[in-house]
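Thread: assembly with ligand

MN 10:42: here's the input set. Chains plus the small molecule as SMILES. Want everything predicted jointly, not piecewise.
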Amino acid sequence: MGRGSCSDLVLWRICGHDYAMNVVVCVKQIPDPAIPGQLDPQTNFLKREGKLILDDSDAYGVEMALQLVDAAGGGEVTLVSMAPNNEASGLRTALAMGAAKAVLVSDPALAGADALTTAKVLAGAIDRVKPDLVLTATEATDGYTGTLPEQIAGLLNFPSITFAKKIEISGTTVKVDRQTEAGYDEVEAPMPAVVSVTAGVVEPRYPSFKGIMAAKSKPVDELTAADLGITPGTGQQIVSVIAAEARQAGEIIEDDGEGYLKIIEFLEQQKVL
Amino acid sequence: MSLDKIWVFAEDAGDKVSTGTLELVTKARSLGGVVEAFYAGTNASAVAAELGNFGVSKLYTVDAGGSLLGVPVASAMAGQIEGGNKPDAIMFATSYDGRDVLGRLSVKLDRSVLTNNIDISVDGGQVKVDEAIFGGATLVTSTFTGDAPHLVSFRPKSFTAEAGGSTTAEVIAASVSEAGQAKIVARHVEEREGPVLDEAALVVSGGRGLGDADKYSMIEDLAKLLNGAPGASRAIVDAGWVPYSYQVGQTGKVVKPDIYIAAGISGATQHMVGMKGSKTIIAINKDAEAPIFSIADLGIVGDVHKVLPQLIDAIKGR
Ligand SMILES: Cc1cc2nc3c(=O)[nH]c(=O)nc-3n(C[C@H](O)[C@H](O)[C@H](O)COP(=O)(O)OP(=O)(O)OC[C@H]3O[C@@H](n4cnc5c(N)ncnc54)[C@H](O)[C@@H]3O)c2cc1C
Ligand SMILES: Nc1ncnc2c1ncn2[C@@H]1O[C@H](COP(=O)(O)O)[C@@H](O)[C@H]1O
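BT 11:07: finished. C-alpha cells for the full assembly:
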C-alpha cells in the first residue's frame, strides 16, 4: 500500500499504487493449553517439548488479516513465529486458513529468551517482509507477558494501537476501535503500524480440506538468531518456584430441589440477607 | 541494590487517578524510598494533592497531545532518565495504557520487563518480584540481571491502597521528545448501573452453562436483589452475550468481593485468577467434577435453570 505523501485514498490511487495490502501476523505456537502446564525442574522455563499448536488467540489475527487483504483486493498474509526445534505445526494450521507463507525463527540459543529479546527476533523477521500492517494478539495464552506488540512497534519505530475490537483500513490509515476501561476509543494511525487484536474481533474460519492440502507446500522460511543479527540474551532470572497456598474446597452438595436453601442460609450467615 | 527512588505510572480514571495507581503508590511508599509519578490525564493539580496524601513527592505531567499514551509517556520518562534523573524501578498496573507505556519504554531503555506480578521486595541486595502462574497454583519469584531502572507491572488488587503523607506533590511538566502518531478521535463510554464490578462487595457471574444469552437476565436479577454487580466468564463475552466490561479473569477484571457467586462457570485457570481472591465463593454447576468446586466454600451440583429461579423467588419473597 502507498507510503509517503500519498496519504488520502484518492491521491493514493492517483499516485499509482495498486490495491495490494501486505499483512504480517505474529503467531505463537504453544503446548496444548488443555494439558496442564509444567515448568522444567532444571531451568524453570515453561516446558515446550512435543507438538505445539497455534495459539487460539492468534487465530483472530490470522482471520482479521485475511479479511483485510481480501477487502484491499490484493496482497498477502505472512506469518512470523519464533519457536523451538523448527516447530511448524501451528504455522501449518494458519497457512491452511489462507496465509501465503511463513517466516520461522528457531534457535536453541533462544530458549528462555525474555520478552524484549523475543520482540527483537520478531521485529527482525518482520522487517524483512516490509508489511503495511502487523497484527498480534493482546497476549499469548501460555506466557501472557502482554508487552510484545508495543515492544515490536517500538523496535520497528511504527505507531501502534493495542486492544483492537474492530479494524478498518482507509487509504494509508488504520482505524481501530480500542477497548478501554470505560468502553472504547476510536483511534487512527498512519501505516505501517502494529495492531494487537482482542479475542472475538472476528470469527476465525476453519481450514478447509483444500486449504489443509495447500498448506503442506506453502513456503516456510527458517532463520536463526544469527541470520537476524541478534545475540540471544535475557535480562531476568527465576530465583524460586514454590507451590502457592491452595484454597480449600468447602461444602459441596447435590441439588435435590432444595439446594437454593443452602445458598440462602450461606447468605444469611454472611449477613447479606 | 535498594529501591531509593521509584516511579509509578499514574492513570487517569476520569479526572482522578485510578484505584490501581493508589495501590501501586502505597506499595512503592512501603519500600522506603522516594516515590514519584508520571501522569498524562486531566486535572493534574487535584491529582497532585491526592497523590501527595499517598506519599508521592513529585508529579511529572505529560502532554500526550491526544494520542495513545505509549509513545509520549515512555518518551517523557526516557527523557528524564537521559537527563540524569534516574529511578531504581518503574511500576505499572497491568492495564491497557500501563502495558503500552511499559512496552515502549522497555525498547527505549533496552531493558527487560517482568509483568503480571503480585508483589515486590528487596532481599539480599536483589529486587525480587513474585508472579502467580497456573491459575495461582504456583508462585514464581524472579529478579533482574541487568541494570536499573527495573521495569515491572502488577496485577490489579495486588496491594491495598492506604493514604500516608500529607504534602501536595510538586507538579513538573516533563518534556516529550517523541509525539505519538496513534490519535484518539472519539471516546465511547458504556453506561452501567449499580455497583462497579471490581469494587462491589458481592459479584454474581454467569458462564456458558446458562445456555442462552436471554438467560443472563437471571444473573442481573440476582445481582440486583443482592446489591451486587453482574460479571461473566470470557466464553459468554466472546459469544457477545454481554459487553467485555463484564469479564472476570486474566484478561478481564480482577475482583475480590466478600461473596462471589459463579453460575454455569467451569472454573478455567484464566477465570480463577480473576476471582480466587474473593473472601467466599459459591458455585452452581451441574458437573460435580467442575474445577470451580475445588475453590468453592459452598458448591451446589445442580442445574442453573432450576437453582437460580428458585433462589431469586425465595429472595424476592422475603
Ligand atoms: C489467553 C486467555 C485468556 C483468557 N482469559 C479469560 C478471562 O479473563 N476470563 C475468563 O472467564 N476466561 C478466560 N479465558 C477462557 C477460559 O480458558 C475458559 O474458556 C472460559 O473461562 C470458560 O468459560 P465458561 O466457564 O463460561 O465456559 P465452559 O468452560 O464451557 O463451562 C461451562 C460450565 O457450565 C456448566 N453447565 C452447563 N450447563 C449447565 C446447567 N444447565 N447448569 C449448571 N451448570 C451447567 C458445565 O458443566 C461447565 O462447567 C481465557 C483464555 C485464554 C486462552
Ligand atoms: N514466539 C512468538 N512467535 C510469534 N508471535 C509471538 C511470540 N510470542 C508472542 N507473540 C505475539 O505477541 C503476542 C503477545 O505476546 P506476549 O507479550 O508474550 O503475551 C502474542 O499473542 C503473539 O501474537
